[in-house]
């Protein structure tokens, strides 16, 4: 039951992450940096604090009493992840949901799922959730197989994106993705994919806070919410700084009070997008409490995000006008990812 519950929670988190960008498409007349930071205030500040307040009694005391080095490294991982999150938004602008998610999350999956077990091997006394334990047990080998299959599925999705790039005219590409730019999008996607994995490293660095939360009587299901507060402070710092720079450079400070655009609607849709974004890690924390912060949790989270975002990409007709071969390729990539999720779930059922 723990495995099934963990998979369900990760699906809910993946659905939130794969869907969060949709409300941004309803924002009218604002520059990207304006709606990104308004949504970000909900993603990285307001909602994490509310979630921690509701689920982790005395969470600020836990943070205050935590060793300074733990706070430092959790915050730094948040700063680095913030750069990944910032370029993630740019990747969505230039590549669209399905292709952007596939490229970015492919790299994030690899780094985020495998580095923590290697870290435990080298720098901790943990003997259960290490890379060595994984490769020396049947359950761990099955999970690693699932990771490989998932990465294969992501590569196939990326291949479909390249095929799409070659087939469609610039006008056709921009019908569904107004700022489509493959070369620029690929560059920011690579940066985003590598640095976005720092979120998982931040969870690992902040584990003493989660352990303290449980020791003080918090429900283990929500123990990671106290980590998210500090981790997302780092992400907020990076994103807020850059968006303010862009506001100044592009002279878009007036967006926030521009009476010629639907201000109420813009704020509401940005808030919905930001809140939906945070829900991915709210549910990730619940799933991680069931499965552990190993390769399985991270790869399930990434896989479900890719599945959901790919489905949204199909529904929003991002693949309209491509050949049957290209369309079949993206569908095959999605099916491969589904199979990888089943493999990882089975590996977890064997109890690493």
How many angstroms separate the termini? 15 Å
Q: What's the total helix number? A: 15
Note the beta-strand portion. under 5%
Shape: globular
Oligomer: single chain
What structural class results from the helix and strand content? Answer: mainly alpha
Radius of gyration: 20 Å
Major beta sheet summary: none
State the low-pLDDT regions, or none.
none
Secondary structure elements and their pairing?
Blueprint: H1 2-19, H2 32-55, H3 59-65, H4 68-95, H5 97-123, H6 131-135, H7 138-167, H8 170-176, H9 182-196, H10 198-205, H11 207-215, H12 225-250, H13 263-291, H14 295-315, H15 324-349
Describe the structure.
The chain has 352 residues and is an all-alpha fold. Helix content is 80%, strand content 0%. The protein has helices spanning 2-19, 32-55, 59-65, 68-95, 97-123, 131-135, 138-167, 170-176, 182-196, 198-205, 207-215, 225-250, 263-291, 295-315, 324-349. The longest helix has 30 residues, at 138-167. It starts with a helix and ends with a helix. The mean pLDDT is 83.
